[in-house]
Amino acid sequence: MSTLRYAHLDVFTHGLGGGNHLGVVAGAEHWSDEAMQHFARWNNLVETTYLLPPQDAAASYRVRIFTPSREIPFAGHPSIGTAHIALEWGLARPVDGGLIQQCALGLLPIRLHHRDDQRLLLLKAPPATDVTGHHPLPAELQLALAHVHCGALAPALIDGGRRWWVVECASEAALRHWQPDHAAIAALAEASQSMGICAFARADTADAGYQLVVRAFGAGAGIQEDPASGAANGVLAYYLRQREPDGPLARGYRVSQGREIGHDAALQVVIGDDGIWVGGATRTVVSGQLHWPLTV
Length: 296
Description:
The chain has helices at 33-43, 76-88, 139-144, 172-176, 182-192, 230-243; strands at 2-11, 20-26, 48-52, 61-66, 71-72, 98-103, 106-115, 118-124, 129-130, 156-160, 162-168, 197-202, 212-217, 252-257, 265-272, 275-292. The chain is an alpha+beta fold and 296 residues long.
């Protein structure tokens, strides 16, 4: 029997239970790949992470990220949540106002900010590229968008650690009321080897408290809709910086995500000369010991 520390987190929270679930295990350095996958499958969250000592001297800590079915090299909300626990449990200490996360994608910086007595963690998004190409948009995308009124910017396939189709909707109301065809999005994800569609719309009112609404349909990872996605918002920020370099969102904005599925997440995006930073607040909901026999 192995006794470890475990936390269940609410990541990108804007209110109690508003963000995205994450499980974090600390102390599993001796676990095999199979044991990590076994627990992640049983835990049955979108992602479970393992907080480990760094292998690179430049890193504050190392993280491995597992879905119930496989290990993935990077994801946004697991990175933010793991950094939160590393700080809360004293397993990493900030240097010059930040941390360096080691993951399968490499070393990724995380900044610490404070706002309204809350600690915000902002992750530097991995470099992104537009991989749409010059061919006509695929028929699978047209089918997936058959019942939504799109906005002025053309859809694009952006690869930034994870690959998403980015689509602008004509209005906040159109996006919030969209009933997507998940089978069509799954076909699109398979055909383009992507996560699916990251759809966004500009806020209908100036005093909403956010500038963009985002819905992320991640059929490529077996998720119908993600309540709060750091990776999707990172590729969206790259897309907007390329399409509207002098627009009102060029230096950053706040995002509302997840209301359509019973959440109310808030994400902060900062766009600067040093890159794109995506993050928000995290709340520890459950913290305790994990008793899990190593049978694999």
